[in-house]
Write a structure and sequence with these properties.
The chain has about 600 residues and is an alpha/beta fold. Helices cover about 45% and strands about 15% of the residues. It contains 28 helices and 17 strands. It starts with a helix and ends with a helix.
Length: about 600
């Protein structure tokens, strides 16, 4: 790309989007697309990937198809582009037939150059035949990890996209994702093209996200405590099951939070209404299973909490990536316990997938466990999975407060010995009861009250021994034998610990009802707003406009734009256009309203 081309793109960037410069990595990806090369772009959430394919589609002489997995994501992106003064088409099942026909005619006639489609709609024989008659030069695959069988969120309907290279050999493909390890990246490229494919990885680090892990004991009490400091903010709480979602939502509502439940057990209309509320209302807490999240484009999500262990390190990274898309400090917390670990392992064991896939899933889960149990920098542990090396971040709980490492070899030996003596036929609860000397019917019936280790740890709380067992599982010393209904089994590592050949050291186990608190710092300073009163007035105006237009508030203006307005107080057209996020279309549409609001505020000072 020569200087003239780059200058032209920057002019368009300001004129349409209202931005003075590109974010890191955007120019490289845009240049690759405009040179008509296939590209896989792996960019962290919030890095501005949608602009990377929107701008080339706008300035090029060919038509573009954007493949999106969710109707809500399509609608949000269409609303956003139309708010910038651009005409865009989208066809999906949420629209009636007549509307879809109008949308197709706009695209086929060239009135619109971009059309959004779901993979199912795109790969219909009738649609393929119709598109072959048009000048389609680019297919954009959003959330491209869905096409890979090795990815954390494989979707069978995405696999058909591998046929695009056959149907449109002269078109180029631009695939985008925020999460893909090396194996997943290679599979995406293999699926989508037989030609050269440039892979651009722009880093996985999200330094504005703080990272913490808290032992899961009383999850409701813990959530209530930590959320007290989050009132007035929007966030997501992920739960493992629908039942947990419903119970947690009711609990939080009783505590005065604007909590919304979302899971696959709810009707399509209920889910759509829940997502619309979350996207438009302020201070909302979405309590959800993993059914919620993909394509969510709400910039001001200030926290993502996992009330249960995620399925893999990739899923975890993808889910926490929904926080802080505006680049402002945001918090992530995972509540982690032995029972969730057992549930996750059981889900893999009982799944219908092939053995090689199960093996990969176990490895991914083990990586996530390593993240939870590490005594060093969590961000360093997380990013190492994606082949990215960083210095200690200073923005995770382990960096803020260095954990104490303790030698638990003696205690571990007692646990291992008890599992040996009971024949490796019992789960964690029974082992804990034996060690503490509980005289349960189960123990007496089996004569386990006569064992050498019976009542050998009477003064240790149940939570301590359960945590010790969890640590031994994470260490690889103990295994969960699902063929024996979740019984604990010992490994070679356990034998080495028991024989005194290998010490067992781990982070100090904290017992008791220690107050749950957020320890993580933020490496970025909070945006300093000189006049919070004006900012709130501007936010109220934005919300009124969004409600009237039936679009998410950020489609009008993102928070960063309002922050800048509150600080600089623009009252002239020139000053207003100098605000980041104000392009020519938004200048014409909103200058009078916002400048009058600012002028009226200044008159009262």
């Amino acid at each position: 790309m020569n200087k003239t081309d780059l200058d032209y793109l920057k002019i368009k960037l300001k004129k349409i989007y209202g931005y003075e410069k590109f974010r890191p990595g955007q120019e490289d990806i845009i240049e690759t697309i405009l040179e008509k090369k296939n590209v896989l772009a792996v960019m962290p959430t919030g890095a501005g990937k949608s602009l990377c394919y929107q701008l080339p589609a706008i300035v090029s002489d060919f038509s573009s198809i954007v493949v999106s997995p969710l109707l809500a994501l399509m609608d949000d992106q269409v609303d956003g582009l139309e708010a910038l003064g651009l005409s865009v088409s989208s066809i999906h099942s949420g629209k009636d037939r007549e509307t879809n026909i109008v949308e197709w005619k706009k695209f086929a006639s060239g009135h619109t150059k971009i059309m959004y489609l779901s993979p199912e709609r795109l790969m219909q024989e009738r649609m393929i035949k119709a598109l072959k008659k048009l000048n389609v030069g680019l297919f954009v695959i959003d959330e491209a990890h869905c096409i890979s069988k090795w990815g954390p969120d494989f979707r069978p309907q995405y696999s058909e996209l591998s046929q695009l290279k056959k149907h449109f050999p002269n078109a180029n493909i631009a695939a985008f994702t925020a999460t893909a390890d090396k194996a997943t990246r290679e599979d995406i490229v293999t699926q989508l093209s037989d030609k050269d494919f440039k892979t651009i990885v722009k880093g996985f680090d999200r330094p504005n996200l703080s990272l913490s892990v808290i032992e899961k004991i009383d999850i409701k009490s813990s959530l209530a405590t930590i959320l007290q400091s989050k009132k007035g903010q929007s966030g997501i709480i992920y739960c493992l099951s629908r039942n947990e979602v419903d119970k947690t939502t009711l609990f939080l509502k009783d505590k005065g939070f604007n909590a919304i439940a979302y899971h696959a057990g709810k009707s399509t209309q209920d889910r759509k209404q829940a997502q619309n509320r979350f996207m438009t209302e302020t201070a909302t807490v979405m309590v959800a299973t993993i059914a919620f999240g993909m394509g969510v484009d709400k910039p001001d999500i200030r926290f993502v909490f996992h009330a249960s262990l995620p399925g893999s390190i990739e899923a975890f990274y993808q889910e926490i990536g929904r926080a802080g898309r505006d680049g402002e400090p945001s918090e992530t917390v995972m509540f982690y316990g032995l029972q969730d670990l057992i549930k996750r392992q059981r889900m893999i064991f009982e799944g219908e997938e092939k053995a090689d896939f199960k093996f990969l899933e176990y490895k991914r889960l083990e990586t996530l466990i390593g993240y939870c149990e590490t005594a060093s920098c969590r961000r360093k542990a997380l990013l190492s999975h994606f082949d990215e090396d960083i210095d200690e971040c200073g923005n995770c709980d382990n960096c803020v407060e260095k954990p104490l490492v303790v030698d638990y070899t003696s205690e571990a030996k007692l646990v291992i010995q008890t599992i040996k003596l009971t024949g490796q036929f019992f789960g964690a609860t029974h082992i804990v009861d034996v060690l503490r000397g509980s005289e349960t019917a189960k123990i007496k019936d089996r004569g386990h009250d006569k064992l050498e280790t019976f009542c050998s740890m009477p003064h240790f709380p149940k939570t301590f021994i359960s945590s010790l067992i969890r640590l031994l599982v994470a260490f690889g010393a103990l295994k969960i034998d699902f063929a024996k209904y979740g019984a604990l089994a010992i490994s070679d590592i356990a034998n080495k610990i028991y024989e005194g050949n290998t010490p067992f050291e781990a982070k100090k186990i904290v017992v008791g009802q220690e107050k749950v608190k957020s320890k993580a710092l933020t490496v970025r300073e909070e945006v300093k707003i000189e006049n919070q009163d004006l900012l709130q007035i501007l936010k109220n105006l934005r919300l009124d406009l969004a409600t009237e237009k039936k679009v998410p508030a950020y489609v009008i203006f993102p928070d960063k734009t309002l922050h800048q307005m509150a600080n600089t107080k623009p009252t002239t057209r020139e000053d207003f256009l100098n605000i980041s996020g104000v392009g020519e279309k938004k200048l014409e549409e909103y200058f009078k309203l916002f400048s009058k609001t600012i002028t009226d505020f200044l008159a009262t000072e």
